[in-house]
Amino acid sequence: MPPSPDNRTHGRLPLPWALVAALAVLAAEVLILRAIATPPTAWQGALGLLAAAATTLILVGWLTHYLWGLAAAVIVPLHPVFAHAAGGQWEAALLAPVLQLAVAAAVLGGCRLLREPAFTMIRWTLAGAVLIGALTLLWPLNPPDGLAASLLVLIGLTAGAVLALQLRRRDAGLRPGNAIMASLLAWLVPAASYFLASNSARFDFLPWQTQPASSETDLDDLLRAAIRFPDANAFSSVWANRNTWAWPLDWVVLPLMAYGLWRALRRGFKEKERGRLPLTWMLPLFSVIALLGLERGTGDAASRGATLAALAIVLTVFCFADVARGIGERLVLAPPTDAGAPAHTRIAAR
Q1: I want to staple 72 with a disulfide (CB 3.0 to 4.6 A). Which of 20, 62, 317, 349 is the partner?
Q2: CA distances from 259 to 70, 263, 319, 323 (A)
Q3: What is the rounded (10 degree) CA torsion for 180, 314, 242, 293?
Q4: Model's pTM, two decimal places?
């Protein structure tokens, strides 16, 4: 008898061959684009482009299917905003969007762990390490983005834990230990990452830190830099450049993004009615919090464009994936009931 899925994955991390194959495809694509680019893209920019595609693959793949995630990830290196960012100052243009996507994917991974029938400490440790590392790098790079990503961790994991405890009444397979761990990470990860990031400003720890190294740096310097009044020209400049990040046609991509948000909310309500965690609610939450960081009008203009381009790709591909899923669900016939059974079947049953 083959081992059950619970016994197969308990206590160790199985190698996801689909993810490995998809990453190999993305690496080949980035190498080909680097070879044909004139002038050739620097290796640092190519690695940043691969990281952006990989995080998009994981985020969309976990929400839908790895094939849809691969479709979204393949678009990333071809997008003009990402291609231009990789050819320029990649640290200022690509690093912040990649870290934001990594935080969103790690929060989604933590919410997926809430559905596991067993408590796996190694996976929670991996999720916490990714979140702390990404937030620690993001805070000095752009404090408003660091604050927005910390809010994503706090709200996403806390809401996931609360929903898991509510749904446990209908599904006894949900473990309370996973909900407790998610709640702990929701509060400890933002605090630990902020402490590490604020102390890194005392030294030349990060080449992109916004403040000079000083032994007199206060703990709340990054927080004061993150909390700013909204820039009135931020959204106007973003809207004026919509033809660049909403590639290839803004009048097509923007409605698809809005419809993708609606389908993410609608799919979440359907999953909740079925007694499952509404993982697709991560997309509206990520979109709103990412826009809050853009509202402050800070950071490099290329970085803001890359963040919006990533949102456009994720929401558009999710829209197509959920539409295809909805069509597939309608094609699946429900099992017949006694009232809806054919007449000769009901007579024979009598």
Answers
A1: 317
A2: 21, 6, 7, 10
A3: 10
A4: 0.86
